[in-house]
Amino acid sequence: MKKKILFMLINMNVGGTEKALLNMISEMPRDKFDITIFMLEEYGGFLDSIPSGVRVEYFKGYSNIKELLERPLHVTAIDFLKKGKFIRAFIVLYFYFISGFTKETSLFYKYVLKDYPEIIIDYDIAVAYAGPMDIISYFIAHKVKAKKKIQWIHFDVTKIGFNNYFAAKIYKKFDRIFVVSKEAESKLLNSVPMLKNQTEVFFNIISSEMILKQSKEGQGFPDKFDGIRILTVGRLSIEKGQDLAIRVLAKLIKEGYKVKWYCVGEGNSRKLYEDLIEQYNLSDYFILLGAEANPYTYLKQCDLYVQPSRYEGYCITLMEAKCLKKPIITTKVNGVSEQIRHGETGIIVSFDENEMFDAISRLLTKETLRLEIKQNLKQEIVDNTIEMEKLYRIADRLII
Predict the structure, then answer these.
(1) CA dist., res. 156 & res. 133, Å (int)
(2) Model confidence, pTM
(3) Is CATH 3.40.50.2000 the right assignment for the domain spanning 3-59+116-205+385-397?
């Protein structure tokens, strides 16, 4: 009999978490798993990438509570007061003060979800797969029936305003907590030591076959530039560090290097980056390509791949660049030492303008080093078996 498994996340935005889920699902045999993806909202460039045979469902009524969840509670309370909704304003203010003094937020989620019934399907496994979205963890813990429950951690808990109190209270209801890198696991356990016996590292999955296939599709770069193309893939947001990339490119151009830097991705920092590009007179050299469900044609065609992030959980785009044998420069983020051998399969630098500039300059001037890195990457084999067995073990035995 097939195992029924539910994955819950925010939406299907073009991002690393969503891509990791799609890659993992592609590895799961359909004759053994009945898979459901449950999203808070019907949105995202990866919606069309969900494999056939996977059931897709949405949180009915999320639009009614989205603003309550995303806005600061005191702002919402003031808005209710202005509208004469005094009882609702008082309730929201109560939760605002409670969460401020005690860090207790689960009571707020209980209130928000009070009219939402429990999902009556009896799943074998239910997974809170989202990023730092506590309501998803609460929903899986309290509103879904399942024999086993899994919490997935894709982020650095020291960087995203992680609520240790909430995690200690809610995560203990999960049978297993998967964390996407050893460093991210260490930081989680430093924050909430009581989770040690539940926690295990599960590296993000990539599909080499899919990446190679899609890298041959699409048009790729829209210009006929004959210099060195540098590529970065990631959401346009401050944590992804494109501002560092812009400043480094300005120095490269000033030093006379014939380069262009391209960014695949979209996000709420676009205007900030457009202004910075204008400030450094880089409109012809730093190109924002927007979101692309298939960035692999660009990856195949670029000369260098650079990841300038301030922080990551486990950077899946580094694995994709490795798959296409590209010389890589990356900042020293969570999981990077588990992905890159410094000086052999890439170069690891601090989040520092001068270090990044020196590393790129080194690869631009030393073609033999670029070729050596490419050759070393050819020796690496992608094997998802070990990671997938961690999930299969739970499904096959329904024990941890």
Answers:
(1) 13
(2) 0.86
(3) yes
